[in-house]
Amino acid sequence: MMEKYNVVWTSQSNGSADSMPLGGYDTGCNIWVENNYLYLYVSESGTFDENCTMLKLARLRIWIEDRREIFEKNFIQELHLEEGYINIQAGDEGDKIRFRIWAAVTKPEIHIEYQSDQPHSLRAALENWRYREREVSKNERHQCRDYEFGYPGRVVTYPDVVETREESICFYHRNKNTETAWNHIIQQQQLESVQDKIPNPLHDRTMGGILTMKGMQYSGEYEGIHAGTDFLGYSYETTSAVTNQEIILTLHTKCCGNMEIWKGELAQKAGISAVFEKSVQWWKNYFQKSYIYINKNDEQSSEFRLGKNYQLFRYMLGCNYYGEYPTKFNGGLFTFDEGKTPDFRCWSGGGFTSQNQRLVYWGMLKTGDFESMRVQLDFFKNLTEGAKARVNLHFRQKGAFFYEQGNIFGTCTGAEYGWNRSPEISTGLEDNAWVRLHFSSGLEFALMMLEYSRYTGESIEVYMNYIENILDFYMEYYPLDEEGKLYLFPSTALETFKGDDPHSKNDTVYGCANPMDAVAGIRCVLEGLIDYLKDKEKTKKYRDYLERCPELPIGVGEAGGKVFLPAESYSPKPFNCELPQLYRIFPFSPFGLTEEEREIGRNTYRQPFPTEEMYLGVSWHQNGIFAARLGLIEEAWKYLYEKFDNAPKRFPTFWGPGHDWTPDHNHGGSGIIGLQEMLMQCDKDKIRLFPAWDKNKDVSFKLYAPQNTLVECDLKDGEVTYLHVMPEARKKDIEIQT
Question: Could you tell me which residues come within 8 angstroms of residue 722 by beta carbon, excluding any fewer than 6 positions away?
């Protein structure tokens, strides 16, 4: 079945925007052939430089020295999806060239295997645009948002080191410890007294690799300009015409105090052979573990295309399965040239916008990608002690919160905290009006941790510090009203609904009260935590917290029925285009909704939204998820077509930029969640199949449910033709709703 989803091109590309993704372990490559040259952009998780820009590590260029034009004949480039590799071939019968490119799955390494019918001279080059010091202009600082909007100093990308050797070339970027964003953020946010609690992942961070080309010799340097950026190339060539050649790129990113140790570790990595068959088997297991096939016997249907793109995007997510850092919502490992240097992306390399980031990972519960999910959960776990120290310093209270625009230090990004802060803004709060007082994403990741346990049955003791302190923060930061209920004021309903003057520096005028996302989030996390802990003595504190929680904000809609409100009190003029009023529907309803809540949700969904932008399907918009959760079949399908239709770029799932960057991973992530919710919803112990599915569309799926449950199901011609549930005891909890 999976071979039907292969991506096949029969012509060369017009640049890196027309590239094909490849990766594994924690690496990602953009691969394309342009003007008879084979190119690879290479990325790895965690490649943050002094400025917290996420650097591309390298660009490789490979060509046939004596027959470059051979690429013009019978060209084929194919992603073999189920096996996880790319094959490129060209030439006439008896005079073909072939490249097989694959990534190891046990270490960060890319293999380029060349084979030809006739002997040819092969050239390979490393092209480095960081061969010189390069100032980051103000219109490029979106790539390092700690320095955007008013930072008074120069921002510089420093040069890499390149060492040519016999049959190999070593290259790396090593951070200058006195010139890092961490140092400047500590000063900006007045964290000097607790800086020992704030992780500094930029200190001694070194990133690079070694390109090994046995049988090839160094042939010199050359200068050039690629996509508007100057570079220095280092070229190698075969010593004679060959019919076989292997080029191996081994990567290494680590904070290491001694360069000789770093080089030794790189050499050790390169010295361990990776096996192609092991990589192939890993990808086969990945796609067999979970799948969704739609109209699999009709390759010309638009629904088949939706299923194909679901699988292609899962492939992109699998490339950073074991990353040091989570897959970035704004391009992941597959950004490409877009008018600036290859290192550029909007919304920063080291910034993690929480409302965007969560959408990349929620879908991994139902695909069973729990190991990869832990990368995102551990990201916050590892930053919790710093967040507690920050809260205690700035607010003189216990607990922890994470900024909506946070970074890899667990602090606020410099742009949002403000280099020219208004004196009215309290120390410790973001100066940026869009996200000030936006704390609720911390609740969502706490819920994700609890759901991880509910699905796997595993202990989440390692995450309890995070979960408990997120809750403690709310209970201490906000006062109780006259009835003894928590009064979340001033606050903000996501970025969208605030107080009478969202531009005010006075938080009591700026803020709304008891926003839906926070109220539903606190209640949901408490319910999940009480269910997880079970023991009455252990849960007493949290049952008391739950007693203090305000009720969900509910009002009367234009049609006269009950509707969910964005907040208890707020200005109806939206500041952004999110729908916080529906956050009880998703994400804060994993234990199910009452029938009354579903009806209120449908009333809310059908009530006209204030702006046209609130109906969008691009990027992080989750209207399709809401529709699926509410059983609105026609609406859910409408948004599914928008999410999983082919992207405007050549590769079908290079969506974007939307609100963020290309490839837009929170576009694909929200699409995955919506499709899963159309097929299967897990409410407490119940597993409801096809709650928002058009029964006229055939589908086969294999998805995971809570309590270590696996559900495989085929729907054909409106009838369930196959249903397999493991463990068998969970079959009684299945409700089929076609």
Answer: 700, 712, 713, 714
Give the integer Cα–Cα distance in Å for 664 and 660: 7
Cβ–Cβ under 8 Å, residues 230 and 224: yes
The alpha carbon of 323 is separated from its chain's Cα centroid by a whole number of angstroms, namely 11
- Give the torsion through C-alpha atoms of 711, 716, 719, 724, to 10 deg: -20
Distance of alpha carbon 476 from alpha carbon 40, whole angstroms: 51
Task: List all residues 6 or more positions away from 362 whose beta carbon is below 8 Å from its beta carbon.
Answer: 448, 587, 669, 673
What are the angstrom distances between the C-alpha of 735 and each of 232, 378, 630, 691, 730? 62, 34, 16, 9, 11
Dump the DSSP string for 678-730. HHEEEETTEEEESTT--TTS-EEEEEEETTTEEEEEEEETTEEEEEEEESGGG
For the record, the structure tokens of 470 come out as 């997120």
Burial class of residue 388 in the structure, from the number of CB atoms within 10 Å of its CB (0-12 exposed, 13-18 middle, 19+ buried): buried
Look at the pTM and tell me if it is higher than 0.90: yes
Please report, for the chain, the start and end positions of each structural domain, with discontinuous segments joined by +. 15-276
- Which pLDDT belongs to residue 331? 97
**Vertex 403 angle, CA 399 and 405, to 5°:** 170
The per-residue DSSP string of 624-642 comes to HHHHHHTT-HHHHHHHHHH
Residue 256 burial (CB count, 10 A): 18
Instruction: Dig out the tokens for 57 from the structure.
Output: 């590590």
On the question of pLDDT at 262 being above 80, the answer is yes
SS3 of residue 25 by DSSP:
coil
CB 496 within 8 A of CB 511: no
Give the closest residue to 402 by CA, choosing from 445, 449, 427, 439: 439
Return the structure tokens found at 603.
């009333």
Helix ranges (H only) for 534-664 are: 536-548, 595-606, 623-629, 633-644
Mean pLDDT of 388-392: 98
Topology of domain 15-276 in CATH is Beta-galactosidase; Chain A, domain 5 (2.70.98)
**Which residue has 């008896």 as its token pair?**
94
Looking at residue 612, the DSSP 8-state letter turns out to be G
Per residue in 88-126, pLDDT (tens digit) is: 999 999 999 999 999 999 999 999 999 999 999 999 999
What residues contact 595, with CB distance under 8 A and at least 6 apart?
none
CA–CA separation, 11 and 88 (whole Å): 11
d(CA 706, CA 680): 12
For 161, which DSSP code? E
Token representation of residue 85 = 């590799």
CA distance 635 to 179: 51
**Of the candidates 423, 419, 430, the residue with the CA atom closest to the CA atom of residue 187:** 419
